[in-house]
Amino acid sequence: MFKANPDYLKLRGSYLFSTVANKQKAFQAANPDKKIIRLSIGDVTQPLAPVIIDALHKAVDEMAVAETFHGYAPDLGYEFLRKAAAENDYRARGCDIADDEIFISDGAKGDCGNIQEIFAKDCKVAVCDPVYPVYVDTNVMAGRTGVFDEASETWSDVIYMPCTAENNFMPEIPAETPDIIYLCFPNNPTGGVITKDALQGWVDYANKVGAVIIYDAAYEAYISEDNIPHSIYECEGARTCAIEIHSFSKNAGFTGVRLGYTVIPKDLKCGDVQLHSLWARRHGTKYNGAPYIIQKAGEAVYSAEGKKQLAEQVAYYMKNAAYISNGLKEAGYEVYGGVNAPYIWLKTPDNMTSWEFFDKLLEQANVVGTPGSGFGPSGEHYFRLTAFGSYENTVEAIDRIKKM
Ligand code: MLT
Q1: Taking residues 5-27, what's their average pLDDT?
Q2: Surface-to-core class of residue 123, CB atoms within 10 Å of its CB (0-12 exposed, 13-18 middle, 19+ buried)
């Protein structure tokens, strides 16, 4: 008789955003006349920029002709995209990253989830709390997190670094030494940012204790203030301790197109073993590369016209963020984020739990958000709204919330 993977059986309920979507569906079924506005999952709503559509059309046409047809993509990514990413996202910012240290994939979520495979099972993981659930859940699947404690809603073998208003949503170096540290800045879900000096502190710490930082930079395009690093490789010494994960979903609207990449510098070693080689080996074995058509669309992101059009798209979403933030403040809410990130993180009123507030918002304003406790115990009494809706829906949602 076969046996299911016991580590999968330890997972808690369903994935956060599936739970939220199911609750929305049930409410809509019971109230078919209500217009629900979804400001929950960070899914984009604006069409792909014209420069990307052009690149997609052109690449599709190439696939129709034998001379320009492309079969399997190189498993680590086409050179044209690895070069464009290394040049524009790193070398243009003074970061020393070579083209062949970029691994193209079909999105950051997969990379965030899969990267833990190249580490030993007994590595100790540290996460911010609240946190993007993929980091924790995939370590649960890998059997790395120990036992779940219902009372504290924490895993025995995970180090939690609380990020609340009290510490300005900034993790502190934990008392127990971790082997793997997940950091995401600008942060999902709090919308918080880290200064270059503070990030340098983490890099120095990781190098000192021999830990690796998995740095999720999915939201870097939303940074609007100075002295906020766009990449961990802006910090001295990051090449020996950091992996960075990059998404095309949030900066270029690729949530339905799927493209991302991971950077692993060749200097990042465990003894003589380069993590770069392990990830390359994994890609070679488990992955046949992101499609040519999609990688050509990714290349267009880095063209002069692409940069211009995408800056406009980011500005569109940040206008939503400002509307949400200002509107909620006017209504008396305590509001964070939304300045360098497309997420607004608010304190629930009257000490309501995150899920109580979720229900109230859905029932009274017909607006769906994401309960903070779904991101971890320190997210309790907080709530996340995304700026990725259409402007019209965002305005309507906030106006409805103000009337509650
Ligand atoms: C979120 O809402 O946290 C993100 O959109 C989820 C994701 O990027 O997978």
Answers
A1: 93
A2: middle
With a cut of 90, say whether residue 399 has pLDDT above it: yes
The Å distance, Cα 41 to ligand 1 centre, comes to: 6
Q: Ligand 1, closest atom to CA 189?
A: 3
The mean pLDDT value for 352-381 works out to 97
R_g over Cα of the chain? 21
pTM recorded for the entire structure: 0.97
- Please count the other Cβ atoms lying within 10 Å of the Cβ belonging to residue 87: 13
pLDDT at res. 14: 83
- Whole-number Å distance, alpha carbon 64 to ligand 1 midpoint, is 34
Write the CATH number of the domain with boundaries 11-47+305-402: 3.90.1150.10
Pocket of ligand 1 (CB under 6 A): 41-43, 109, 132, 188
Q: 2 in helix, strand or coil?
A: coil
Domain boundaries, the chain: 11-47+305-402, 53-303
CATH number at 53-303: 3.40.640.10
pLDDT at 353 over 90: yes
Query: What's the 319 CA to ligand 1 centre distance in angstroms?
Result: 20
Beta-carbon contacts of 281 under 8 Å, excluding residues fewer than 6 positions away, are: none
pLDDT tens track for 161-197: 999 999 999 999 999 999 999 999 999 999 999 999 9
By the 8 A CB rule, do 205 and 211 touch?
yes
CA of residue 293 to ligand 1 center, whole Å = 24
